[in-house]
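[audit] Reproducing an earlier prediction to check determinism. Same input, same settings, fresh worker. If the tokens differ from the archived copy the diff job will pick it up downstream; this log only records the rerun itself.
[audit] input (413 residues):
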Amino acid sequence: MRRLVLPRQTPRVQPLSTRGALQRRKQERSDSVNEAILLDRALHRQRVGATRATAAVLEEVERHQLGRRKGWHDQKLTESRRAMVGSRLGCAAVKIGKVNSASNLELSCESLNGGGLPEVMLFGHSNCGKSALLNALTGSRVRSKGPAEVHARAGWTAELGYYRVEVKRLPREWKQAVGRSRDADEDEEDSGDALADMLSKRGGGMVLVDTPGYGFTVSSEPERRQWTELFEGYIERAPHLRIAAFLVDSERGVCLEDRKVLRQVQAAGLPILPVLTKTDLLRPDDLACSHAVISAQLANVTSQHVNLTSQHVPPMAHAAMLSSHFYHGIQHFWDRILLELLRAPRRPPAGERGCPPVGGLQPPAAPAAAAQLGQPQAQPQGQPVTQAGGGASSDGRTRRRVRRRVLVADGDA
């Protein structure tokens, strides 16, 4: 008798329990996590439990072996993946300098990157894994011996770090993308052949830029203000910045500070490449659902920005997924970065972009889509945005309501 083979269907995802959601992770410092971060994680768990994953994202998770699964921490496989990442680079990453002040920022950037190499910025909330991802992209060990210093304290990175890498192996899709760029009659300086020569030649390559985190940090108010001025000045005036890679914690989702900074980067006219980090903390099916929730949040941020500024903003790219400590998805993310570099045009001078001022954006009223996702309501125009770690009475009432929701859901589970 022949067996009846049923078509493969999207598995039914069991809702995540919120038990333990209001407790910090074992490896986290007690001074680097506040109540707002824990509540964001708890709400994200509820959204993930109420979301169904798509078959395409589930296939991507399986293809790159993402998520916490059997053998996910195998050190031999981790070293093998790290060696494969290092084999695509021409030499070890070199730290060429740092910028720690917003004064004379453009001159400092020109002196560090005098060759005009394309720059890729890593930005995101504090402790989202920016320095760890930079070490993973360079094929270094994440926790030690990497070019970027990794620390568990929120706010450890306090300057712009410039790291030059040479790319020896290009993606398989590079030739097809170069052919399309030739059909578009692009400038010879921006052509794919010229970019490939720049990326692979000795002394050339590209520059990865590590940035200070925003949001809750172990720092003083003057330090946070200085980091904000440094970040805003860089995205507005850096002449060779081509791509902004946005890192979002796969267990937390897009928070209120993320929304504000994303609008600033969009206003500066930069293409944004989202990436979900710390994927080894979630099961594969939960990771696919988290990807669906975060993708909807990012689409909501783009629509809000268009409604607020009437500025044409292209939709964000498909969010990548990776684990820096175990090198899952790093090779694929390298391909995404290089292909995006080929498509990203050179930035015109700051005075010719016609963008609204970077610091002058206020979030609009949240539409119905944000309310359905359970996202925090944005402040109306003309009112200051309350930070997640602030002490306003209305913010405290909101936190208490959210805490009651989480505890009730935890009791039902």
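[audit] rerun output stored. Observation attached for the diff report: The chain is about 40% helix and 10% strand.
[audit] end
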